[in-house]
Write a structure and sequence with these properties.
Blueprint: H1 5-24, H2 28-49, H3 56-92
């Protein structure tokens, strides 16, 4: 089955929503796995978008999807920030827990 470009955007949106759900439960391993899946989808999208163009109505839907992905990404970053700060502190102290 041939996927449309919008299918890739929707798949990325779906994966980002699952990433948010994993981040909300502090399942960071799952967040990282899903981030890898998103990277693959993004690479596939980039490849396909070289030879396929979106119709005007599809571009409007793409913008809506991208806005939702960006909002979801911002929420994930807010949830991950304390975890990333803890990781940064561990790295700064050479892994020594104080």
């Amino acid at each position: 089955m041939e996927h449309t470009l919008l299918d890739y955007y929707k798949a990325i949106e779906n994966a980002s929503q699952k990433m948010l759900e994993a981040a909300q439960t502090e399942n960071w391993d799952q967040v990282v796995r899903l981030e890898g899946a998103c990277a693959v989808l993004i690479a596939q999208l980039r490849s396909k978008s070289r030879s396929i163009e979106l119709a005007p109505e599809e571009r409007t839907e793409k913008v809506r999807i991208m806005q939702r992905i960006l909002r979801t990404d911002a929420e994930i970053r807010c949830l991950a920030e304390p975890w990333l700060n803890d990781l940064e502190q561990l790295m700064d102290t050479g892994g020594k827990v104080h």
